[in-house]
Amino acid sequence: MNILIINAGSSSLKYQLIDMDTNQIAAKGTCERIGIGGFLTHTPKNGKPEFKGEMDFPTHVQAMEAVLDKLTSEEYGVISSMKEIDAVGHRVLHGGHKFSKSVLVDEKVKDAIRECIPLGPLHNPANLMGIEACEKAMPGVPQVAVFDTAFHQTMPEYAYMYAIPYKYYQEDHIRRYGFHGTSHRYVSGEALKLLGRVEGTKIITCHLGNGSSLAAVKDGKCVDTSMGLTPLEGVPMGTRCGSMDPAIVEFIANKEGLSASETLTMLNKKSGVAGVSGVSSDFRDLFAAADEGNHRAQLALDMFTYGVKKYIGAYIAAMGGVDCIVFTAGIGENNPKIREMCTRGLEWMGIEIDEEANNTRGTVDITGKNSKVKVFVIPTNEELAIALDTKEIVEAL
User: Which active-site residues does the annotation give?
Assistant: First the structure.
């Protein structure tokens, strides 16, 4: 079975074709600048050459047609025809309170995704465009929606509610939803395999990248997470501010003469470690600058790791203990220094990492010899998780 994974943005479309007999990527690529020109990067994994070039993508439909053309082409292809694509799995950002698991796409599901646009105004419209582009290009091929918010729907009410007038929850569904759910679900599941059990387990997953979030996972189910109604809440991130006093929005808006939307754009795109450091949102640049004595770069790193450490402590308290901590995503998987900084000072809680193991890559147990808590590095694989969900749903039809 071949499953095509689609992650559609407002002006981009990322894809992977996965052979589910081997769980290996057959081809992957990205369509960029949709609506403003177009550029396609297509990488087959069968030894054929990579394609990079400008193409005309007025809409996501043309981008999807170009993807299918490259997947089936004699020069760059990995399949002989579109008939070899058995299903399509779509990453959808926001499912609101409506979806606690992945679902087969039909008109009701598309309507529900549209209803969640106010909760995910940047991503949900693009996700819908991706779905509809695939429907047009591949009529009759099953489409499955996998929601970033679904894994967090097991949170108890007291964890997902905000202390604002209750009518805003009743009327507008304002609550904590959380994101990176597919990643948290995947790596916590891998951690459960390493632990050898599900019942009675308490896991903290740290998805640390340009966007970062943590989740508390008890008995394999999410009981709390750091992101909120939107991905802006939580730890400081690459360009996002993370949690802060909401009165700051009014203060800055009044001082700078900005609208609420303009202020939120600043908090989403010009804040975080980039805003604090004035250097970059890339942690490699921050470490380089800090090594040269840049105080603000070091401050940004300290704020980020301090924020992660606070959430780890909070989730240990919330779950009444912890069996293991998992680091994943671009920074969590690839930056040993960040992992060391995030766990430094937690020895009294029985959390230590092994310095030598911490400097290796891949799935690795970095638990220190005196640690009572397991610490794992587990590379996330959201695309495979989406593909596995899609396969399960399609095989049940």
Answer: 148
